[in-house]
Design goal:
It holds the Pfam family LpxC. The protein is of the alpha+beta class and 307 residues long. It has 7 helices and 21 strands. A hairpin with a 2-residue loop joins strand 17 (214-217) and strand 18. Helix 1 packs across helix 2.
Length: 307
């Protein structure tokens, strides 16, 4: 069955790129509602934005959605990953600013609050998107691909010149709480060489290596406390990928393979997928199929102690 939260949950924090304070509330929603954002700081016009692939505006460092009136919300990927990883299909997200709070740089605080509030099944079956044939997109040395599979599996490879990151590869089946156990507390990261450039361009103004990001410089980890996992960067890229894939509007049954891929490439992959009706179909999930979806049966005991 589809699922939503048992009760609303609230967050206060700072936007990673804007540096602005923001308040956000996730409300339960009825079956077949989907995931929608509402800008509560805008009083006139259309303030509703669907969390959907076809309203994504291409940005290199985060995922930003914008409606036909030009109203937008940015950096939604960690929240979307938390909702998908906890098996939430329907929710209304009210936010009083243009960017989701970065919190600790991962999806952990979103996941903790959702699981604490509780997840309630609804009286409507889940429809999933079944991948029927391989599709892929490439930009330079970056590649993203979806291939048929019985569950959602994410495989990712990254390669950075900084020795503290280097080459990292990881793959996970997203069913049975693996997102909560393995990925949700992996934080966003960047290279020290990029920090000044981003801030000079009005980005990463709310970034703080002591609170919400991991910063690398060559063979050094500059953030106090170091890494939560030796391969935290690739885990975070997988977290981002789950959040961006959640914009498909339904759980995906297929294997995602990312090589140096980012937000824009994953969104381009969804656009290519939905442009080809022979590449996918909706399937109504029975109990066996639903058990293979992200978030199925997840509970607070699976929340990682490191977060």
């Amino acid at each position: 069955m589809q699922a939503t939260l048992k009760s609303s949950v609230r967050f206060t924090g700072t936007g990673l790129h804007s540096g602005a304070a923001v308040h956000l509330v996730i409300h339960p929603a009825s079956a077949d509602y989907g995931i929608w954002f509402k800008r509560t700081d805008i009083l006139l016009g259309d303030t509703m934005i669907p969390a959907r692939w076809d309203v994504v505006e291409q940005t290199p460092l985060c995922t930003r959605i914008v409606n036909s009136a030009g109203v937008s919300v940015a950096t939604i990927e960690h929240l979307m990953a938390a909702l998908a990883g906890c098996g939430i299909h329907n929710a209304l997200i009210e936010i009083d600013g243009p960017e989701v709070p970065i919190l600790d740089g991962s999806a952990a605080e979103f996941v903790r609050a959702i699981l604490k509030a509780g997840v309630v099944a609804q009286d409507t079956p889940v429809r999933a998107i079944e991948i029927l044939k391989p599709i892929s997109v490439e930009r330079g040395d970056a590649r993203a691909e979806l291939v048929p599979a019985d569950e959602l599996r994410i495989d990712f490879h990254i390669d950075f010149v900084d020795a503290a990151i280097g080459q990292q590869t990881k793959g996970l089946n997203m069913a049975n709480g693996s997102f909560v156990r393995e990925l949700c507390d992996s934080r966003t990261f960047c290279r020290q060489a990029d920090v000044e450039t981003m801030q000079a361009n009005g980005l990463a103004l709310g970034g703080d290596p002591a609170e919400n990001a991991v910063v690398f410089d060559g063979d050094k980890v500059l953030s106090p406390g170091g890494l939560r996992y030796a391969d935290e960067p690739v885990r975070h890229k997988m977290l981002d990928a789950l959040g961006d894939l959640a914009l498909a509007g339904a759980p995906i049954l297929g294997r995602y393979l990312g090589t140096r891929a980012g937000h824009a490439l994953t969104n381009e992959l969804l656009r290519v997928l939905f442009a080809d009706p022979s590449a996918w179909r909706y399937v109504e999930c029975d109990h066996q199929m639903a058990a293979r979806l992200p978030g199925a049966g997840v509970h607070m005991a699976e929340f990682p102690a490191v977060a």
